[in-house]
């Protein structure tokens, strides 16, 4: 059921610290431990030091004991179907499988479902690094 993830992402978006872009984003992860971990974007006066909602949620998942992303929802109040940025795709991929579902939302619910492989085809992988 993805609606609970949508609601968690929408709730997380309220915590965004986005005074510069005024573009709040929320993310919610259902992890392999069954828990939902959430995050919002956190900007900084030194603009490059800010970060996206997805890594906030990933950090919460790791520190909460979750190891894998089972499914994930992303929402932005000013952009329906806000897609995770390129860097976030790589960060999500670290904890996902090719078939992991990413839900892109609008203000009422999940509007588009994509797999990790659709979001980040031909991703960086090498056996040299493990
Ligand atoms: N943002 C995210 O939080 N996630 C994304 O995948 C796209 C962009 C944030 C970063 C910045 O705080 C604001 O949206 C505008 O780029």
TrEMBL record:
Listed SUPFAM superfamilies: Cytidine deaminase-like (SSF53927)
Family, similarity comment: Belongs to the cytidine and deoxycytidylate deaminase family.
Keywords (A to Z) from UniProt: Hydrolase, Metal-binding, Zinc
Residue positions binding Zn(2+): 52, 85, 88
Catalytic reactions of this protein: 2'-deoxycytidine + H2O + H(+) = 2'-deoxyuridine + NH4(+); cytidine + H2O + H(+) = uridine + NH4(+)
Annotated PANTHER family: CYTIDINE DEAMINASE
Any one GO molecular-function label of the UniProt entry: identical protein binding
Descriptive protein name: Cytidine deaminase
Function: This enzyme scavenges exogenous and endogenous cytidine and 2'-deoxycytidine for UMP synthesis.
GO biological process, one term: nucleobase-containing small molecule metabolic process
The UniProt record lists the keyword Oxidoreductase: no
One Gene Ontology CC term in the entry: cytosol
Segments forming domain CMP/dCMP-type deaminase: 1-127
Residue ranges the record marks as coiled coil: none
Annotated EC: 3.5.4.5
Active site positions, chain numbering: 54 (proton donor)
CC cofactor: Zn(2+)
Organism name: Ciceribacter naphthalenivorans
């Amino acid at each position: 059921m993805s609606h609970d993830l949508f609601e968690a992402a929408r709730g997380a978006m309220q915590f965004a610290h986005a005074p510069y872009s005024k573009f709040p984003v929320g993310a919610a992860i259902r992890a392999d431990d069954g828990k939902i971990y959430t995050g919002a974007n956190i900007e900084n006066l030194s603009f490059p030091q800010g970060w996206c909602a997805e890594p906030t949620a990933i950090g919460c998942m790791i520190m909460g004991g979750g190891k894998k992303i089972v499914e994930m929802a992303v929402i932005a109040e000013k952009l329906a179907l806000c897609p995770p940025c390129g860097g976030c795709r790589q960060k999500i991929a670290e904890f996902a499988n090719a078939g992991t579902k990413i839900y892109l939302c609008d203000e009422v619910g999940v509007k588009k479902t994509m797999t990790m492989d659709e979001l980040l085809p031909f991703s960086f992988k090498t056996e040299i690094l493990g």
